[in-house]
UniProtKB/TrEMBL annotation:
Nuclease is among the record's keywords: yes
Any one cellular-component term (Gene Ontology): cytosol
Top-level division of the source organism's lineage: Bacteria
Keywords: Endonuclease, Hydrolase, Nuclease
A Pfam family that the UniProt record links to this protein: HNH
Family matches, as InterPro entries: HNH (IPR002711), HNH_nuc (IPR003615)
Native source organism of the sequence: Alkalithermobacter paradoxus
Name of the protein described by the UniProt record: Putative HNH nuclease YajD
Domain (HNH nuclease): residue spans on this chain: 52-107
GO molecular function term, any single one: hydrolase activity
């Protein structure tokens, strides 16, 4: 089977040929920037405390709140913060600020609040 030809790295000014979008050197840089900008509060979500409380909350509230309002029964898979916490630990751990949502409702809500693909303040409508 033929192999896909290598192409230049997409990083501006880099002449290296690669099979991926970026060469190894620049892929590390891109990953580091992505992790820093896209998940600044990741340490809160990666804690054992959050995993335990999330599991308990989903056990108590197994249905998606948004779908329930529309009269649809859907299993919840995500614990959503009603008011975005933006690193405020008091708001992050406040159970009255949580709601259970299915993945599609959570993604829709987050896209409306944050703007799609990290473009804050830019909300799309159809």
């Amino acid at each position: 089977m033929p192999v896909k030809p290598k192409r230049p790295c997409s990083y501006p000014g880099c002449p290296e040929l690669t099979c991926d979008r970026y060469c190894e050197k620049h892929q590390k840089e891109i990953n580091k920037t992505y992790n820093k900008n896209c998940r600044p509060y990741g340490y809160l979500y990666n804690s054992s405390r959050w995993r335990r409380l999330r599991k308990q909350f989903l056990h108590k509230h197994p249905l998606c709140e948004e779908c329930k309002r529309k009269g649809i029964v859907t299993a919840a898979t995500v614990v959503d913060h009603i008011k975005p916490h933006q690193g405020d630990e008091r708001l992050f751990w406040d159970e009255s600020n949580w709601q259970s949502l299915c993945k599609s409702c959570h993604d829709r809500k987050t896209a409306k609040e944050d703007g799609r693909w990290g473009r804050k303040g830019r909300v799309y409508s159809y």
